[in-house]
Amino acid sequence: MKYLFLMRHAKSSWDDPSLDDHDRPLNPRGFRQAPLMADRLNAWLLQPQTIVTSSAQRAKDTAVLVAQTLNDKPPILVDTALYTEHSGAITAVAKQLDDRHQTAMIIGHNPALNLYLQQVGMYKENLPTSGIAVVTFETTSWQAINEVDAQLIYLDWPKRQVS
After folding, report:
1. pTM tops 0.85
2. Following CA atoms 110, 36, 53, 88 in sequence, which dihedral angle do they give, to the nearest 10 degrees?
3. Residue 104: CB partners within 8 Å, gap ≥ 6?
């Protein structure tokens, strides 16, 4: 079984209009919410063994905050292919993961995450910033994963109301 944790980068800042989109940092809310969401994952027995993040500054900042907060402190890899609107990049990056890892996290952007998650059964229209979804695949190889066999088992976001 493989577990893919998918996270949308935390809330970014639009304070400096001269910055290229790729270079935008997190805003104060983003710096609060990314560790909050990682802390929620600390209740899980299975945590990401590695994090692969988009090369955008806001995604890299999110990855660092998440890795520092998770109990297991996973290493971070940066992949420019995740700075995209295309959901296929998520599958392509996941298929390159090391099979020694049962669990991995990808930190990316919308609309790619929304499109991917809707293919695997997400009922929400939009995965909010800092939102996390976990998808499972009944396989021992990341190269064998596909959206058809994926099962969405967890969906959470910072403002979700717990009843």
Report:
1. yes
2. -40
3. 2, 3, 4, 5, 48, 49, 50, 51, 52, 94, 97, 142
